Amino acid sequence: MKNRLIKAISLGLLLSAYSINIQAQSVDNTQKMEWFKKAKLGIFIHWGIYSVNGISESWSFFNNYINYDNYMKQLNGFSASQYHPEQWTRLIKESGAQYAVITTKHHDGVSLWNSKADKAITVPGNTPAKKDVLSPFISDLKKSGLKTGLYFSLPDWSHPYYDVNTRTKKRYELKNDPKRWENFVNYYQTQLRELSSSYRPDLLWFDGDWEHTSDEWRAPQTLNLLKEYNPNIIINSRLNSHGDYDTPEQGIPVTAPQNPYWELCYTMNDSWGYQPYDNNYKTPNMIIRTLADVISMGGNLLLDIGPKSDGTIPEKQVEILKNLGRWTLKNKDAIYETEQGIPFENYRGKSALSASKKSLFLYLEEAKSFTRIYGLDSRPVSAKIIGDERAVVKVDYDADKTATLYFPEAKFDKDVTVVELTFDTPPIFLKNSKQKAQLTDILERKNSQLASYEIADQLHLGNNLLNNTGLTGDGLDMTIKKTARTNSETLQWISKHAEALFETGKGLPGGYYSGMSALSKDRQTLYLFVEGTPNGPIALKGIKNSIARIRIVGEGTLISHSVYNKLYWSETPGIVYIDVPEDRLDKNMTVIAVLLDKPLELYKGKVGAIESNL
């Protein structure tokens, strides 16, 4: 009995010690991730010999679009003759980014620094540049106060000790030649030791871990190696489950990843490295709205640039970075150190909270008369538009705990306007607090914009106020009950948009569209309610369907759309951007009909890394 008691006490002490240790690790992890969580914006730099001919980095020879020998001839054209790292740093800082991540070595195995590892191919030793192009940039980054991130490819498709060469060729099987594999592990870890000892990076951005298991990579050993030089090193998710944060690639997540730390790595056009004929750039407006989207979900945006082989950055990319800088400087209080925003059921748009939770930021992608917050159990102390000191924001807070914000004289930002609401204490947001409205009351509102908004919002929630009221499918011969106070302008809006209101149902869940929506009875037409005057094309995420056509409801105009970031081999849908002509906007609320190829299918999966690039 005594022995059992001693064993029980010993086990209890061990479990207690284990629990304390886990808690300590958790605290340490939170502390080291603090700067990353606050950063919100980083710049990714893909620079290597692939910029000489402007072809896909590494993948082009892996997939036999060009043979390996011809790919490697680009070594002879990499000059870095106009490379001024201090200009890069200045531009990155001007963009508002807090950190940068540069490709020290891609899958092609060409190192930007003077690596002494066995059989390494380097820019200083094998190109006309004849110099270490990595060191001066990292040095300048550190002087500027920006955090330093190093991208490092685990695979090296050039190295004789590595097993994989191309999609169809392997040098050897690991089980048949384990010594050769050990030589490769030693090679890549030697390179990581060189990078760590020389640069003391804040972050290591791995890529390519899918080609081998954690055991084969010796991942725990690699992690320990990095911690020798920086105990607080941050690792991305691509070291076979040994990372600190998730890295969705290209596809903007519909909803926030479960990991509290994550980063969307994202190209400006369709390419990572410089490609002269890829002109499919997102507009500066799209990039800023993507940043607002990521911020609202509590993540970071790692936006990519691809310098030319001479070291200059393409003009279009410079333009995007400078416009980013304009917006981030103006709205810095609503960007850095913010937390994930409030649920879509409380606000039909993008939002974020300050670290203290006493400020709520709303990101408006259009110029409009008002916006609403539902289930707000705290009255705001003040409201303002950031960057416009003369703007007046009027707040109407009613008994249903709905705050309506009016913007009578606002100067809206050309990309995204930020409204800040402040509170004495962190506000509480109630779930499902919205009361069911009565159609008669809505029709008697003097403000037809508010009436249209309320009809659309109720419909979005699945409460179609116009069912069985005398509405017809074409809006003609309606027998909707009227009173002496019925607003005729609201009735006209209903008649014009009857198609979107007649027997339609609940709209998209939060995250798919930054606004209200509805679905036709057969679920094959998606109706989007567009408020005010959009600053750019409206955006849809996570729609798996193909689109047959898009038109403006009530007047038939066909409008165009573009799809960005749809990788043909991936299940992740691209982003659908829809251009809405300003001269066709309805002054109360515009409705867009999106005809799908079949009943609506939504993507709900995780956005992962690119593991195939055919």
TrEMBL record:
It holds the Pfam family Alpha_L_fucos. InterPro entries: FUC_metazoa-typ, GH, Glyco_hydro_29, Glyco_hydro_29_N. It is an enzyme of class 3 (hydrolase). Its EC number is 3.2.1.51. The keyword Kinase does not apply. Residues 21-332 form the Glycoside hydrolase family 29 N-terminal domain. Keywords: Glycosidase, Hydrolase, Signal. The keyword Disulfide bond does not apply. Residues 1-24 form the signal peptide. Belongs to the glycosyl hydrolase 29 family. PANTHER family: ALPHA-L-FUCOSIDASE (PTHR10030), ALPHA-L-FUCOSIDASE-RELATED (PTHR10030:SF37). Alpha-L-fucosidase is responsible for hydrolyzing the alpha-1,6-linked fucose joined to the reducing-end N-acetylglucosamine of the carbohydrate moieties of glycoproteins. This is alpha-L-fucosidase. It comes from Chryseobacterium gallinarum. The lineage of its organism: Bacteria, Pseudomonadati, Bacteroidota, Flavobacteriia, Flavobacteriales.
